[in-house]
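User: Design a sequence. Structure:
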């Protein structure tokens, strides 16, 4: 007699397990749970309005209410593909390292709008291949803690790899500066905004830039975030003014493109640290702002095309903060900067979902995809959007209610995952029918088509 029967229970695509959606009270966003795995991850509600580009969705949902955060990969049908460790994760980004696909992400201690931690680089087996750190002690960092308990002082905002095997990150140091231009004391306290380029394999610093060491070119008066506003700091030692709040850095040729959120500014830096040009989102800086090109409190600024005459940049323009309210609709902005003549900034593109506008107050990302598509992550508004080349919305993907779930950034990227772990299996015997159902999932596997579970018979009394 057959006491239990093992049979092909299900076909698992993309490594995602069997998900049941359980609503945990009124305000809690439903989580996906699995019979085969203890993983609990936010349900991703994907609706499509058109053709999207290829690839998986990479983001790091943080459940603010239930207190958990993970680097994660999802497929477009809302299935979880990979869940990393439960930890405070920022700046997760799929990229190429040493010619191979890799994922970078920050983990560490966060607070006050910045953090102190490290960048982990994993390969497509989900094993850590490099830990990039910036020793707080060795590099003489002053943090908000006394005595200094932290090992590594890399900030949350960036983890950008270059073709040269280096990593670009931001960092925050607490120091003193003259705040009289913004109505503060001459010996006020500030969060200095720093940029580092670090060689991944040797952890050696190749480039360092400090905003506070360039006050002649980057004066504190550029800041739009007022002294004493929530998150910007009051300028005393325990509440330093975060006037620069650097939130993206990328390298083009030898130069560095830097975004300062609280200065509403974009800077191009030369290798010697001098400012080649400055674009201010309210006043123009070195440029003249044409109609519709104003921006502020922006995120994720990148150069998408450049000639000697014209540089085109993209950004996530939230133009809102925790202290200004949510007045302005969040858009993806493409600006053409004329490098010669009248140095006019003209509007080259703007994407936003007019039917369901987003008004986000912190975080966000803008990714240029193939065929002119754009992917935006909206930070504190837990929503990912894709637009086509005409600016029409083609995908909305929500993973939480506003301000209860967040992901600093989001990306779409092609990916083949070959986990170094084994699949997770659970078998449930039904007392009523004597049938056994087998549940299988494999964290991070992308090319599973089906599972073949052989049927074994056991004879009573053997
Ligand atoms: C997913 O979002 C759509 C569009 O907002 C909504 O109509 C639908 O009810 C949502 N699905 C679930 C299961 O929440
Ligand atoms: C995730 O980690 C946080 C902080 O350590 C902890 O409070 C929480 O219970 C963890 N959540 C899960 C689901 O493991
Ligand atoms: C980051 O995560 C690693 C485990 O991957 C852990 O060992 C390390 O302590 C974490 N770093 C910080 C700064 O939290
Ligand atoms: C990175 O740090 C984690 C946690 O400390 C460790 O498990 C892992 O082996 C490290 N990776 C490398 C490549 O050293
Ligand atoms: C941080 O600021 C202190 C005080 O001004 C200074 O001594 C130290 O060198 C700075 N550290 C870094 C990493 O810039
Ligand atoms: C610093 O500023 C914060 C916020 O305004 C305030 O709570 C704190 O008491 C101030 N500390 C000192 C030493 O003045
Ligand atoms: C990459 O490294 C090479 C050799 O060290 C150097 O000449 C080149 O300038 C680097 N490129 C960038 C973009 O840093
Ligand atoms: C720094 O580099 C810029 C751009 O190449 C150059 O114009 C400037 O003179 C340099 N400054 C110094 C102090 O060397
Ligand atoms: C700036 O120059 C461009 C190209 O020469 C021209 O099209 C534009 O009208 C000028 N704008 C202003 C404000 O002068």
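Assistant: Done.
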């Amino acid at each position: 007699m057959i006491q239990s029967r093992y049979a092909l229970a299900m076909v698992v695509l993309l490594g995602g397990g069997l998900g049941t959606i359980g609503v945990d009270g009124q305000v809690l966003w439903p989580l996906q749970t699995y019979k085969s795995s203890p993983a609990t991850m936010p349900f991703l509600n994907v609706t499509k309005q058109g053709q999207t580009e290829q690839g998986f969705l990479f983001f790091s949902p943080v459940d603010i209410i239930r207190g958990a955060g993970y680097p994660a990969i999802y497929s477009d049908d809302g299935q979880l593909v990979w869940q990393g460790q439960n930890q405070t994760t920022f700046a997760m980004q799929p990229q190429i390292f040493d010619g191979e696909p890799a994922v970078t992400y920050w983990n560490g201690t966060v607070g006050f709008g910045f953090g102190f931690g490290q960048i982990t680089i994993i390969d497509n087996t989900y094993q850590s291949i490099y830990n990039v750190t910036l020793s707080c002690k060795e590099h003489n960092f002053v943090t908000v803690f006394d005595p200094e308990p932290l090992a590594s002082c890399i900030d949350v905002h960036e983890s950008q790899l270059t073709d040269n095997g280096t990593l670009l990150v931001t960092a925050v140091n607490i120091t003193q500066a003259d705040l009289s231009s913004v109505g503060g004391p001459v010996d006020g306290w500030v969060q200095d905004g720093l940029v580092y380029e670090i060689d991944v394999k040797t952890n050696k610093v190749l480039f360092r830039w400090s905003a506070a060491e360039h006050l002649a070119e980057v004066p504190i008066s550029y800041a739009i975030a007022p002294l004493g506003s929530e998150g910007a700091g009051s300028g005393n030692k325990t509440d330093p003014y975060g006037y620069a709040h650097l939130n993206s850095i990328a390298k083009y040729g030898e130069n560095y493109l830097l975004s300062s959120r609280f200065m509403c500014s974009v800077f191009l830096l030369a290798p010697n640290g001098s400012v080649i040009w400055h674009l201010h989102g309210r006043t123009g800086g070195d440029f003249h702002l044409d109609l519709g090109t104003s921006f502020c409190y922006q995120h994720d600024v990148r150069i998408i095309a450049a000639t000697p005459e014209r540089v085109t940049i993209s950004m996530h323009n939230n133009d809102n903060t925790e202290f200004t309210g949510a007045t302005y609709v969040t858009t993806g902005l493409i600006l053409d900067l004329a490098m010669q003549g009248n140095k006019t900034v003209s509007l080259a593109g703007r994407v936003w979902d007019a039917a369901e506008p987003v008004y986000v107050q912190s975080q966000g990302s803008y990714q240029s995809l193939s065929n002119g598509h754009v992917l935006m992550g909206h930070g504190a508004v837990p929503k990912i959007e894709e637009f086509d080349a005409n600016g029409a919305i083609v995908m909305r993907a929500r993973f939480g209610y506003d301000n209860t779930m967040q992901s600093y950034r989001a990306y779409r990227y092609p990916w083949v995952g070959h986990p170094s772990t084994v699949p997770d299996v659970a078998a449930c015997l039904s007392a009523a029918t004597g049938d056994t159902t087998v549940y299988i999932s494999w964290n991070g596997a992308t090319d599973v088509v089906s599972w073949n579970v052989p049927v074994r018979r056991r004879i009573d009394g053997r």
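The pocket of 2-acetamido-2-deoxy-beta-D-glucopyranose (ligand 4) is lined by residues 128-131 (CB under 6 Å). Residues 1-25 have pLDDT under 50 and may be disordered.
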